[in-house]
Amino acid sequence: MERLSPESEKQLLLSAQKGDEKAFTSLMTCYRPGIYHLCYGIIHDQELAEDLTQETFLHAFHHLHEFRGEAKFYTWLYAIAKNCSLNVLKKREREENKIKKIRGKEHQRLLRLFSAKGENLEEIKEFIEEKLSNLSLAHQTVFRMYVFEGKSHRDISQKLNIPYGTSRSRLHYAKRYLCK
Question: Which of 126, 134, 138, 167 is most enclosed, with most CB atoms within 10 A?
């Protein structure tokens, strides 16, 4: 992170607070790498860390008039970035909890349905495996990890080193194919 002298930072802040976008851009250029690394360290997703970095600077720009200078500007940005990142984690956790509840209900419903029809669960699994074999290995892997192993999209994305959204997309595609 390129360091600004306290005087340079103060001048840029005063100019930015008066509406000078170039001054704010200079501050952003200086502090962007550090803010990105903070977001990435919390989220572990490059694209989302980029988005959160942008969100941090957008928030800072719109609330620059609230910066009182009691702390360093970077400390203020750091707090904004940390809060934005933690909010995303909380939202992701809430969504995963909802999915787990839904998945549990779906699983129970399927078990009731299959046992009511007298179906052999092994036959059903063989049928699913046969249909899965027509999908790419990437789609099969995500489906198996999510459905058979009960892994979350976050766990899958970390284990396979793919973005969170890619895990969701592959599962959706696999489910859609199996329902044909």
Answer: 167
* Class (C level, CATH) for 6-88: mainly alpha
Cα dihedral 117, 122, 123, 124 in deg (nearest 10)? 70
CB atoms within 10 A of CB 24: 19
Residues 134-153 have a mean pLDDT of: 90
Residue ranges of the chain assigned to CATH 1.10.1740.10: 6-88
Residue-wise pLDDT for 53-70, tens only, equals 999 999 999 999 999 888
d(CA 90, CA 102): 18
Res. 16 pLDDT band, cuts 50 70 90: very high
Identify the pLDDT of residue 2. Answer: 61
For residues 74 and 57, the answer to whether their CB atoms sit within 8 Å is no
Percent of the chain's residues with pLDDT above 70: 85
Does domain 120-178 sit in CATH 1.10.10.10? yes
Judged by DSSP in three states, 148 sits in helix
